[in-house]
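Thread title: Can someone regenerate the structure for this chain?

I was given the following input by a collaborator and told the matching structure tokens would be attached. They weren't. Posting the sequence so someone can regenerate them.
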Amino acid sequence: MTDPAALMAFNIAAIAVYLSAFGYLVKQARQQRSSERSWVISFTCTAMLCHGLGSYGTVFTERGLQLGFFQVGALIFWVINLLVLISGLRKPLHNLFLFLFPLSALAIGSSLLSPNGEVFIDHLSNAIVGHILLSILAYSLLIIATLQAIVLAYQNHQIKHKHPNGLVRLLPPLQTMEALLFELLWVGEIALTLAIATGVLFVDDLMAQHLAHKTVFSVSAWLIYATLLWGRHFLGWRGNSAIRWSLGGFSALMLAYFGSKFVLEILL
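Best answer:
Regenerated them for you:
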């Protein structure tokens, strides 16, 4: 699918469905009613179908693989929505769509309005493709974990200040939310470990390949998440400590990938 008009139509349709679904979730939350599971799944599948077709045609072009800052951002949000949709069939994750739907619409809109990113014309080896896929999976899982940490912080704050109303009433118990956060962190840390390990194979010169900042922040994020998981296992860290460490790891991770790409592609 390379027809620009068709790609534009799919992307605009995805934005429209995402925003409509967001409006539905906000309405349900204000009325303190749980969202209908069938409606959420229908909205999500429809938006993701359009989103996937639009992102695929934007990233996989006739000239090669386009991995620009905004194009990759839109692709990552598609992966995040897919993971939340699948995981939400067994675990209470669908509330995260309240954040993901508007962010996904913003990511798609940014990819449409941005200039074309860097295009890799040469054939990519299976090893490099594997590294790229692992990186996208790691970023997606840890972004989901970060959103979970934000929801947990809100829930913790409301309960501590004796305001168990509104959205808090629609959320699972605090212990369930916290356990889910650490499950996401464990899986995300494993994926990040594999992404860093495979990435080392392609490093010849950190400075010449503009990988110094990315490497430093990626390893920093890995260490922060590893420390958090160690503290959880051996010291029983939870609550605000877990939330702060999660957000710290996320900040380093975003600087590792999006920060370096933003500087190289947008500012320079």
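Helices lie at 4-30, 37-59, 69-87, 97-113, 126-160, 174-200, 212-235, 239-267.
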